[in-house]
Amino acid sequence: MSDKKNKVIEIATMLFAKNGFENTSMANICLEANVSKGLVYHHFKSKESILVEIFTQVTNQMAEMGEKTTSSSKPEAQIQQLIEIIFSQLKKDKHLFQFNLNVMFQPTTRKILHEQIEQRANILFKSVKGIFDQISAERSNVLSYMFIAEIDGIALNYLSIFDDYPLEMVKEELLKKYRNLK
Amino acid sequence: MSDKKNKVIEIATMLFAKNGFENTSMANICLEANVSKGLVYHHFKSKESILVEIFTQVTNQMAEMGEKTTSSSKPEAQIQQLIEIIFSQLKKDKHLFQFNLNVMFQPTTRKILHEQIEQRANILFKSVKGIFDQISAERSNVLSYMFIAEIDGIALNYLSIFDDYPLEMVKEELLKKYRNLK
Amino acid sequence: MSDKKNKVIEIATMLFAKNGFENTSMANICLEANVSKGLVYHHFKSKESILVEIFTQVTNQMAEMGEKTTSSSKPEAQIQQLIEIIFSQLKKDKHLFQFNLNVMFQPTTRKILHEQIEQRANILFKSVKGIFDQISAERSNVLSYMFIAEIDGIALNYLSIFDDYPLEMVKEELLKKYRNLK
Amino acid sequence: MSDKKNKVIEIATMLFAKNGFENTSMANICLEANVSKGLVYHHFKSKESILVEIFTQVTNQMAEMGEKTTSSSKPEAQIQQLIEIIFSQLKKDKHLFQFNLNVMFQPTTRKILHEQIEQRANILFKSVKGIFDQISAERSNVLSYMFIAEIDGIALNYLSIFDDYPLEMVKEELLKKYRNLK
DNA sequence: CATGAATGAGCTTTCATTCAT
DNA sequence: CATGAATGAAAGCTCATTCAT
Asked: Which among B98, B107, B173 is the nearest to A19, CB-wise?
């Protein structure tokens, strides 16, 4: 893939995260990426297709991440590891996560990415359920939903609700809670 | 407040929820509400100000809702009642909640509503903390954050992630979990 | 109808005739008509709809013109009169006729105006056949087609093929030919 | 001439006929012809020059056709033969004739091809006048204009005006009309 | 309180053409 | 001969906002 195409994706990701998809114009992207409009449309069919390509890349990264945790260790350890990974990503790529929330909730972008969003949810759910299955087969479903809700809720509160969210404190509480699972 | 102004607010809320703030034009609103552009600008300074007025109305409704639960009953009962109210609202006003997530995560609208979003978070946090204070003064902070995260996470998963979310099952789990607090 | 809308139609007709539909931009029209783009799109749904409105106006004028000749006089006199009217229009509105040929042959505009083109052909054919029916019921069909072909062919040659077409000479020949019909 | 250049001309002719010159992009041509943009610009100076080359080819074909009829037979037979050739071409290459009308009436392409259009008209006129000269020297001019008008008018009506034109019937009428010329 | 004509900047997208490889 | 990345101008169209009536 050419250098300039990568540059466009990089800049577009940054601008979509910062200003939202609808408030980022192709002209903006071209200006920041130092390329012409013609070039962008040579590499991408439309503005939407840039979004799809970015979102797909992130989905693939998440899939890889999910595979790492399904190791051979005990389920409790796997959950601890999963929590660690998620919280560290959350702190590191704050803007990327905000961009993801943004496009998932905006009706227009949501429609465009519906398939990928579904796919992501399934990847995460299977990954989590795989762990809880080892603890309690009959309760693994509800436990998975609860766990994912807690993670997503914390992310949401941290990223977009509370100005000074005690992320560390909440993480410790979560780790403690999932240390002993009968 | 005039009938036509109410009509504009009602239609705007519906369209913002359905298509997003950026993808709803003033012309759309006028057409659907059967009023002229001049009239809308007579009642509202700008498109943004319609959004602010809608969001403020919802915030006030939430504040009223929060007051209801701070009754004289036992803290456990208060939490059960709070959960019941939230889940019932969630099912009833699905679109309104989606609209709220939408504007809270889109950078442009987020900036416009920053103050109200903060205010809302504080209202909810105080309301929840007021209950947990009666159970454990030293742990009330972290418990409140965890509780709010669970609620928000469930809402997010139900509204925008999983196509067929087991809302009832999750609600029962949550009620069970908060039935006995030492 | 507002003054400015009329101005737009007038200017658009002139520019379409002079440069063709595809080579006339909305910016061109706005510049010449001294109005903003927004105004044009306030009055017309699209560039196509301007074309349709112009074409429909001309069709209506033609329909009126057709009715004038169906008078009570003898068929030979009616044909002479029809020829006179057509040749006088041809000389007077040369650009308008060229514009009509242009849009009727260009694939894009042809599709847009298909219905009106058909309607026009029927109006003219009925009008001509109405005259020839009085002369020979069984040959009126073929005579009408021949007459229309001659008229259209002369117009085409005059407007777009020969640089110095002997329009008067051809008209006299045609008048002579249709003076005595058995 | 290279295979690929021929392919480009063939595809361009087809697309110009189908969609018009202005609505056919170089990218379209490249895609359909399975060649790169660079190659097309290696063979042709510009998009216009493709049009000129196509039109010139057709003009040359017409010139050859004209020469065939100027045989040693009687003038009446020559006209009958000319009519037969023209009607047979009209039916065979309907799209090619529509393309020719299209570019001759669209102002932009008209300017580009002005010279060739004039040349063509002269070729045809001389060819026809050569026949009528043998019948009546003093009336050959006006008779030629009338004959050409009839042919062009029939073509125009058949190709672009009437949806179900009785081409055979009209042809028979024309043959009958020009069978006996005093 | 109510209308809708009018503006002008900005939007996404298309396109003929060039040029390094 | 052949490719396709890259350009930049221009296209049709949208939209929040203003203002005379």
From this structure: B107
- D85 with D169, same domain: the answer is yes
CATH of the domain at A14: 1.10.10.60
Nearest residue to E21 via alpha carbon and C1'? D38
Q: Are residues A40 and A51 in the same domain?
A: no
Q: Are residues A142 and A76 in the same domain?
A: yes
Query: Does the beta carbon of C149 lie under 8 angstroms from any beta carbon of chain D?
Result: yes
D69 pLDDT band, cuts 50/70/90, is: low
Contacting residues 28-67/D vs strand F (CB within 7 A): 35-39, 41-42
* Domain-embedded: residue D142: yes
- Structural domain contains residue D15: yes
Query: Angle of helix C75-92 relative to helix C94-105, nearest 10 degrees?
Result: 90
Q: Give the pLDDT band of residue C70 (cuts 50, 70, 90).
A: low
Same domain, B102 and B155: yes
D26 and D109 co-located in one domain: no
Cβ B150 vs Cβ B174: under 8 Å: yes
In a domain, D182, yes or no: no
Residue B157 has what DSSP assignment?
I
pLDDT at D125 over 60: yes
SS3 readout for chain A: CCHHHHHHHHHHHHHHHHHCCCCCCHHHHHHHHCCCHHHHHHHCCCHHHHHHHHHHHHHHHHHHHHHHHCCCCCHHHHHHHHHHHHHHHHHHCHHHHHHHHHHHHCHHHHHHCHHHHHHHHHHHHHHHHHHHCCCCCCCHHHHHHHHHHHHHHHHHHHHHHCCCCCHHHHHHHHHHHCCCCC
- Nucleic acid strand E within 7 Å of A38 CB: yes
Cβ count within 10 A of residue C104: 21
Handedness of CA D84, D85, D86, D87 (dihedral sign): positive
Query: Most confidently modeled of A148-162, B92-106, D51-65?
Result: A148-162
- Whether residues B106 and B170 share a domain: the answer is yes
In a shared domain, residues B54 and B31: no
Whole-number Cα distances in Å, C67 to A175, C60, C71, C141: 91, 11, 8, 19
CATH number of the domain where residue C128 is located? 1.10.357.10
The rounded distance, in Å, linking the Cα atoms of A132 and A112 is 32
How is residue A14 written in tokens?
A: 């940054």
- C182 pLDDT more than 60: no
Cβ count near C153 (within 10 Å): 25
- Residue D71's pLDDT is 64
Q: Among candidates D52, D30, D31, which has minimal Cα distance to D42?
A: D30
pLDDT of residue D70: 59
Residue at C182 is within a domain: no
Are C170 and D104 within 8 A, CB to CB? no
User: Does the CB of B27 have a partner CB in chain A at under 8 Å?
Assistant: no
Integer Cα distance of C168 and C136 in angstroms: 28
Mean pLDDT of chain A: 91
Residue in C94, C144, C145 to test binding to D, most D beta-carbons within 10 Å: C145
Q: Which residues from chain C sit within 8 angstroms of residue D23, using beta carbons?
A: 22, 107-108
Owning domain of residue C31: 1-44
* Residue D106 shares a structural domain with residue D156: yes
Closest residue, by C-alpha, to the C1' of F1: D39
Structurally, how many domains does chain D consist of?
A: 2
Distance A28 CA to E20 C1' (A): 28
The 10s digit of each residue's pLDDT in C96-148 is 888 898 899 899 999 999 989 998 999 899 999 999 999 999 999 999 999 99
User: Per-residue pLDDT tens for B16-66?
Assistant: 999 999 999 999 999 999 999 999 999 999 999 999 999 998 888 877 776
